């Protein structure tokens, strides 16, 4: 066990609600040795996580530009406050902002494309993928040279 | 109890209408549906627009069978709890979602023998009639596959070997 929490990597795990959130939570053991903050769009999800920090960010989707902007600003402020070493997301729009902004702030970034995209990568994943340090798909047939990689899924 | 859910994104009245009609025909009182934000409401089955996570968990734990859109949140939760689930994919061709990803995902998960699927309205009715023969397709445990977990773990802490200094 690490004795000092200051040595633990600061990880922000971020997603929108519903399936993206359920998938993000299924990755939890990967953050066992980390100083973990979950960031998502619903206050009601707070009760589902124990032993990690929790913060709410404004929700957004591609159909509303104002909400997108509000969400991006909320994510920027959250990341400036936490200054994470790693940002990881399962999607969708908030995750895209988080990995782009996280990268600019010097964090390592991970994109785990949603398992709900069995035929083509998610739109946010296609956009985010090129910019992240670790780009993963959950379907072997979607993996390709130059990314994304397949190493397993949330099942 | 049969728990019906359409998820949090958008309503799925086509599915709820079929089930509401089926329930009325068969005098099924043991159905509860989460129907999303819609002006239309079912005439026979009990419903609520949304459930908070605690309520959702309660309904799911009480349910003998789950019928839902092909949303991964519901599918993963049903598999984790080993509940039999029948999935009815939304169709982009009917304006029910942006692209056919629910259809694609349902097909893939069906071929992996993880879920039961009804693709068409008639098939949904037939499978509702035979719901008691529906089996849970497996137990996926609490977390993602170990290979995915360890890949992320190693990426976050690549110097794990030198840990403890």
Q: What string, H for helix and E for strand, traces the elements of chain A in order? A: EHEEHEHEHEE
Q: Based on helices, strands and strand pairing, what is the structural class of chain B?
A: alpha/beta
Percentage of residues in strands of chain B: 5-15%
Gyration radius of chain B, rounded: 18 Å
Bin the helical content of chain B: 25-40%
CATH architecture of chain B: 3-Layer(aba) Sandwich
Sequence stretches where pLDDT stays below 50 over 5 or more residues of chain B = none
Indicate the overall shape of chain A: globular
Question: What distance separates the N and C termini of chain A?
Answer: 29 Å
Query: Could you name the CATH class of chain B?
Result: Alpha Beta
Would you tell me the structural class of the helices and strands of chain A?
Answer: alpha/beta
Using the coordinates shown, work out and report the CATH topology of chain A: Rossmann fold
Q: Largest beta sheet of chain B: what is the strand line-up?
A: 3-2-1-4-5-6
CATH topology of chain B: Rossmann fold
The mean pLDDT of chain B is 94
Mean pLDDT across residues of chain A: 94
CATH superfamily of chain B: Glycogen Phosphorylase B
Task: Supply Rg of chain A.
Answer: 15 Å
So what's the CATH class of chain A?
Answer: Alpha Beta
